Amino acid sequence: MKRELNNEYAVESEQTQETYTKIKWSITKLIFAGILLIAGSACIYLGLQPLIEMEFDLKSFANLVFVIFHIYYAISLFGVKRMSQFIFWCGSYILLIFASLMFFYYDSIFI
Using CA atoms, how far apart are residues 2 and 15, in angstroms rounded to an integer? Predict the structure, then answer.
């Protein structure tokens, strides 16, 4: 029985290795991740710009939340091991970039 269980586990582990392959970093993925990191760095700068210019209002401190999220997502790229994780990381980082740009330029866009 133990051998059968061990064989089943071996089969399961082989199947999981086949279905969850590690990410292969191609030049396209590196360029796309680089573009997102550059856009995230620009959002970090835009979020810190009011505090650098000594404008201490509520929106300036609310920008720090987006800055913290951008720093977290930039660091979390190192934890991406699978293709599905890379797709999720790209999608969620794009949404974060759009949300933060809409927050930074709310007055210019909607008012």
Answer: 20
Percent of the chain whose pLDDT exceeds 70: 80
- pTM of the shown model: 0.74
Domain count, the chain: 1
Q: Which residues pair with 82 in a beta bridge?
A: 22
The mean of the pLDDT values for the chain is 83
CA distance 72 to 65: 11
> Sign of dihedral through CA atoms 45, 48, 52, 55?
positive
2 within a domain of the structure (yes/no): no
Determine the Cα–Cα distance for residues 40 and 55; give it in Å rounded to an integer: 22
User: What angle separates helix 27-52 from helix 83-104, to the nearest 10 degrees?
Assistant: 30
- Containing structural domain, residue 89: 61-111
